[in-house]
Amino acid sequence: xxxxxxxxxxxxxxxxxxxxxxxxxxxxxxxxxxxxxxxxxxxxxxxxxxxxxxxxxxxxxxxxxxxxxxxxxxxxxxxxxxxxxxxxxxxxxxxxxxxxxxxxxxxxxxxxxxxxxxxxxxxxxxxxxxxxxxxxxxxxxxxxxxxxxxxxxxxxxxxxxxxxxxxxxxxxxxxxxxxxxxxxxxxxxxxxxxxxxxxxxxxxxxxxxx
Length: 210
Fold this sequence. Notes:
Strand order of the largest sheet: 3-2-1-4-5-7-6
CATH superfamily: Vaccinia Virus protein VP39
CATH topology: Rossmann fold
CATH architecture: 3-Layer(aba) Sandwich
Radius of gyration: 16 Å
Order of helices and strands: HHEHEHEEHHEHEE
Strand content: 15-25%
């Protein structure tokens, strides 16, 4: 995991830009970084919500996290990893060449090049949070922020199969985050992860059978 403070942005809003991540991944070609939690922390959650190891999973904004590789080793081999940084996708493709059944694709999470209804599970661990970085009042997010978030969530709705799940792992409390997930097509359940310290929240959006 990176401890190089020079890769941190001058302004947190940079976390929501492609330029920042391209530069960071170019500076850290051999590093990995996991936002919030690792697979070991999340295994009970995945055992509960993704019991079928054959599920088709899309990892939204995969970055250079160890999550996909660890899930692969646990039996989740049908993973499509997407990120808008071609640099990190190239790095991760090479790094996981011994795990050939999962794929790495350069893709914008607000414009997924995936067929409608083709995915069983969409996972987001920190990507939406990056899109939500902005200056201003957290109680009254800007229209621009809401549109960015809507872009990803609407694409998730489109690519999820009936009965599929969108799992969002975040530090964002329900009164700030849940409003962005309201859709007629699914039910939203909120769970809390706490290892004795900071609370993390898991939003599980289950798409109703059609």
